Amino acid sequence: MSKPTVLITLAGSNSRLFPFNQGISKSGLTLLGQPLIVRTIREFLNRDYDSFVIVHSGRDKDESGIPNTLKRHFPDLKVTYLEQVAPLGMGNAILTARQYLSGQFIYTGGYHPQAAAVADQLLSFSTTSVVCSADTEHPWDYGILSIEGDLAVGITEKPSPGTEVSNQKIQLIYALDQEFLTTLASTNQSDHYNFETALNVLMQQRKVGHLALPECLASLKYPWHLFDIQKELFSQLKSARDRGAKISPTAILDETNGPILIERGATIGDFAKIVGPAYIGEECLVGDYAFIRQSSLEAHSIVGAKTEVVRSLIMSHSSLHFGYLADSIIGNHVKIGAGLITANKRLDRQPVLVTVKGQPISSGRKELGVMIGDDSNLGIRVNTMPGVIVGPQANIFPATTLFQNVALGEVVKTK
Question: Which of 14, 250, 358, 377 falls 20 to 30 Å from 202 in CA-CA distance?
């Protein structure tokens, strides 16, 4: 018997992911050489899922969008693409695809490479609607399940501290059926939480299975969540050196704590040191005496001579040299002049706060540097304080110290 259709939603403004929400959807972001959506689809195909419905936003229509990305990787993929005209939430995105869903179906996001393995577990239940969850230490920040045995009997969105019924955070992968779709269609379509409302109603009317996962699936709500996905991908990384890579005989590749993958055309300079886990993408350059540890460099990126990159993620065609980059995320086509210094810890060593949509948000991380959007330029001797966000297409003049976020396209000069 064939497996159910997989519904993946990619729409939404993803405003909290700024500065990495300006191009294609977050599922199209590339980590360790592949777009996240490609990894997700490949895992489903490997487990014999062969029918997909993808709801995307208008920004995915261009050449770099999700449909074209998947066509390049999977020319024969059986998929229906639908556009969600306005970002009206999960419920609306699902209803957009209603006529293309029959019987039971799997619903998930496009950035969960492990979703296919979880889906197989959901399908083992006798109930046709199944949800999954994992432990959280901060239940007041999430949708929390009420559980009785192997059934989910309710969901509370962001309960007040002290009122939470469990510590089980619901995860973004579900087995659902036609009855759920009927229930969802009967809810208030302008309610941002109508998906959760429909789940609650369904749980009261019939049995909904519950699967407890050993740990949370990686989220991608805020930009620093990319580190969690990077860590997960590092755990699956295998050591390799492409024959087309040029590695100096004096370079040091230390795999004591994790593998190192060096792709085709990469160049590793004299006396450079790379400490795993690490990923060096195609045509990357790691300059003489550079020090890379626990970091990933996407294709065509450059880390120049005498530069230290620590626990960071550098996207494609970006460059920096003679500086210190720690716990940071650099977007695509970013140019950074010599002498960059990123501060990655608060003086009091408390979790770093990040301003998101005008409000301070705890990142939950005691080490967090700078997050720089695509096509930005930083002059020489720029310093950044912990948790600063630099918007895409920004220009930061030399000898500037950034204490606060920089807007899209903003020009910052030292006064």
Answer: 14
